[in-house]
Amino acid sequence: MIEIVRQKAGELLNQGKIKGFIAPSRENGHVAPRLFTRVEELSTLNLGDSSSEGDARYPLDKILITLHRKYPDDCFGILVRGCDQRGLYTLYRLNQLNPDRVIEVGIACSPGLAKACECLKPFPDDAVAGDPVAPEGQKAVEMVEDMDMAGRFEFWMDQFSKCVKCYGCRDICPMCFCNECSLECKDLVSKGDLPVDIPVFHLVRAMHMADRCIDCGLCEEACPSDIPLRTLYKKTGRIMDEEFGFTSGINKHEKSPLSIMGPAPDKKGP
Amino acid sequence: MLGFCGIEAERLRARWVSSAEAPEFVEEVNDFISALKQIGPSPLKKNTAQNVA
Ligand code: SF4
Ligand code: SF4
């Protein structure tokens, strides 16, 4: 798989189609994101796998936003898994990236990773490597739904109270690009002191992610307190699907129902 | 989302009421108050009271 990606990225660089290729790189024993600008550098290319598949993923989309702003005339290549591509589609929709200046090189995730993530599309459109597998169910969400109200309340309050308000979940999020963040608005959540306001802090973020979250799971991986944030946002995503038949980043040209003024669109979902 | 976190969804309402519609506003608020009285105190409030005590 990695050879195909390396070859593809090399071609793009050789042909001068891209200024650089964004992907993880293994150097000095560590996997970290890198901008490859020369073909020779591609020997350290990595797919975000440190000791197991997908355990060293990074918000590559977010890095692309920074590069896009800094080099407004250049085109970049980027390694994408299903979630990264959902992120790109969402960032195109939100006018944060220009699709004409992005070339995606997609890889499909293995059944094992798809199962661990329970994401809705564990493969990108037009994958160059890997065999697309069907999405798994969403057991994590169902586990909470199976609890009664008191159980859910206890579960989430226990989880939220572990929060150290490090903002890691927001900072790693490829869909968080606002200049002013509601999580720093003192009318919503108290700023600069602990403990964090619960459940407000986490629910404000969940609301803001409603039509954005692409379920990449990086927030949960970043959270030092192991709060199951992904489950929370998966639920917001589900509500969007049930109410509006919309899933963020699944279709390239789909507008968010939350950006349309007027009567509610017809429900497509169950 | 509130329901998913074990908080009664009826505790949150959003309504569009124009500034020219005072009676509608009063009615809405009164209705909300009586609905809240029926549900009783919020689990969140109980929690803080316990923490303080
Ligand atoms: S969220 Fe989906 S696409 Fe992304 S790494 Fe997990 S399985 Fe792959
Ligand atoms: S990453 Fe975890 S601990 Fe840090 S602010 Fe987010 S929820 Fe809280």
Overall radius of gyration of chain A:
19 Å
Number of beta-strand segments of chain A: 5
Radius of gyration of chain B: 14 Å
Morphology of chain A: globular
The residue-averaged pLDDT of chain A reads: 90
Spatial sequence of strands, sheet with the most strands of chain A:
2-1-3-4-5
CA(first)-CA(last) distance of chain A: 37 Å
Order of helices and strands of chain A: HEEHEHEHEHHHHHH
For the largest beta-sheet of chain B, the strand count, sense and barrel status come to: none
The number of helices of chain A is 10
Number of domains of chain A: 2
Beta-strand percentage range of chain A: 5-15%
Structural class of chain B: mainly alpha
Distance between the termini of chain B: 29 Å
Which secondary structure elements does this structure contain, and how are they paired or packed?
The complex is a heterodimer of chains A (270) and B (53).
Chain A: H1 2-14, E1 20-27, E2 30-36, H2 60-70, E3 76-80, H3 82-93, E4 102-107, H4 111-117, E5 127-129, H5 139-145, H6 149-160, H7 168-172, H8 200-208, H9 218-222, H10 229-244
Parallel strand pairs in A: 1-3, 3-4, 4-5
Antiparallel strand pairs in A: 1-2
Chain B: H1 22-39, H2 43-52
The complex binds iron/sulfur cluster (SF4) (2 copies).
